[in-house]
Design a protein that fits this description.
Blueprint lengths: L16 H16 L5 E8 L2 E12 L4 E2 L6 E2 L4 H14 L20 E6 L4 E5 L6 H6 L13 H8 L12 H9 L16 H13 L3 H13 L20 E3 L5 E3 L3 H7 L14 E2 L1 H12 L3 E2 L2 E2 L3 H7 L10 H4 L12 E3 L4 E3 L2 H4 L8 E4 L5 E5 L4 E6 L2 E2 L6 H10 L5
Helix pairs in contact: 1-13, 2-6, 5-6
Length: about 425
């Protein structure tokens, strides 16, 4: 456990203190109305924290407040971490972005694409393009998530035990083999669909590094950055710091997640199949260290994880033709609005703030998690922002868009 403190007065970094308070007043209403249990908000400029606030409770039943060292399930905010891990191996020459995934996971060699029919009797054809590593990084692989509930392929995932997360009893290799045995939604590289692609990427990291995913992330990223509270499982001694998970009811109010007890117990057992797409626990201190590293072009406190050009490359739009997500995405859930936003290697990328209808900078990159957590990094404004809470699903309230406007209105230099 490491302390987290304000490091600069707002006016020292071009922010207005009174305007920053609008963030707190606005999101306090989410807590008092029962829409969120509690939250933590962090705004840093030039790598220095200028605004850090908490509100509400990490456990409503026990009346425990959100603290600066509260541990959160960050779910899909795991994806940028796994993507960084993969690109660190890419920098070591372990693979090229155009390499077929089957070079690392042989079951991906002969892929089929869904063309029609039901989950019981799907019709398929051979894929016209191998699935390549860049397809995993950009969610253009043709893979899917069971919880989309849009196609018979999603149903196939559910029948195989992948409703949320990994199927019980399978290790990561076996999960990947199961996904490879189900049809793709489209030929790799032709559409965008939020999916288990980053979980498959986690297996590529294991094969390329020769290490279990949890060990590689710990030794290559968490230990160098001082992210001492981040991992796929917690120590029992940190149980009281773990925030309770809530789910929104029909009115959008926070209710204890029906599987909270089981989820709480599983938090202390290393998973058989660590999810590179959604399995990490973390704290504001730790994830701020990660975003600072990205903002600094791959280096923090003398520890360089990535070259600066690699970070720039990862955070540009890699969608075919340079189109935005609205153009290429299937009509499915994601952790970002689609208009004006592209996708890089592990991050959404804001290409056109006017089209996205948000105040921000072209080149800003971001992602979020299923329990309504979010972050973004703006290299133009030298800005990083982090919001942590525990409400599923993240589409319940417009937290991210509102946080955007409240943060940018506070910049006054």
């Amino acid at each position: 456990m490491v302390s987290l403190d304000i490091e600069a007065a707002p006016d020292e970094v071009g922010l207005d203190a009174a305007r920053l308070q609008r963030i707190d007043r606005h999101f306090e209403q989410y807590v008092t109305s029962g829409k969120l249990p509690g939250w933590l908000a962090l705004v840093a400029r030039g790598g220095r924290i200028a605004h850090l606030s908490t509100c509400g409770l990490r456990d409503i039943d026990e009346q425990l407040p959100v603290l600066r060292d509260t541990v959160f399930r960050i779910y899909s905010m795991t994806k940028p971490v796994t993507s960084v891990a993969a690109m660190m191996l890419h920098e070591q020459g372990k693979f090229e972005l155009t390499d077929p995934v089957s070079d690392f996971i042989p079951s991906f060699a002969d892929l089929q694409v869904y063309t029609g029919g039901t989950a019981r009797e799907p019709r398929t054809r051979p894929a016209t393009e191998p699935m390549r590593i860049w397809h995993l990084l950009t969610h253009t692989s043709g893979l899917t998530y069971a919880f989309h509930r849009l196609t018979p392929v999603d149903e196939l995932y559910r029948r195989a035990g992948f409703e949320y997360g990994m199927a019980d009893g399978l290790d990561l290799q076996a999960c990947c083999d199961a996904w490879a045995g189900m049809p793709l939604l489209f030929d790799p590289g032709t559409r965008w669909n939020y999916s288990v692609a980053t979980d498959v990427l986690g297996r590529v990291v294991e094969v390329a590094s020769g290490m279990p995913l949890a060990e590689y992330l710990r030794t290559a990223i968490f230990e160098p950055l001082g992210m001492t509270d981040t991992g796929f499982a917690l120590d029992r001694g940190d149980a009281d710091r773990l925030a309770t998970l809530y789910a929104a009811d029909a009115a959008g109010n926070a209710r204890r997640h029906p599987q909270q007890d089981a989820l709480h117990e599983s938090a202390f057992e290393p998973p058989k199949a660590p999810s590179g797409g959604g399995g990490l626990f973390s704290t504001a201190h730790d994830y701020h260290r990660f975003t600072r590293m990205l903002l600094r072009g791959g280096e923090l406190d003398g520890q360089r994880l990535l070259g600066s050009r690699t970070v720039r490359y990862m955070t540009r739009n890699h969608l075919p033709g340079g189109v935005d997500l609205e153009t290429l995405a299937m009509g499915s859930f994601s952790e970002a609005a689609n208009a004006g936003k592209g996708f890089g290697l592990g991050f959404s990328v804001l290409d056109d703030p006017a089209a996205a209808k948000v105040i921000g900078s072209a080149g800003e990159f971001a992602w979020g998690g299923l329990a309504s957590t979010a972050f973004w990094v703006d290299p133009i404004e030298d800005l990083s922002v982090l919001f942590l809470t525990q409400l599923m699903p993240s589409s319940t309230h417009p937290i991210r868009s509102q946080l955007h406007q409240l943060v940018y209105q506070s910049i006054v230099d």
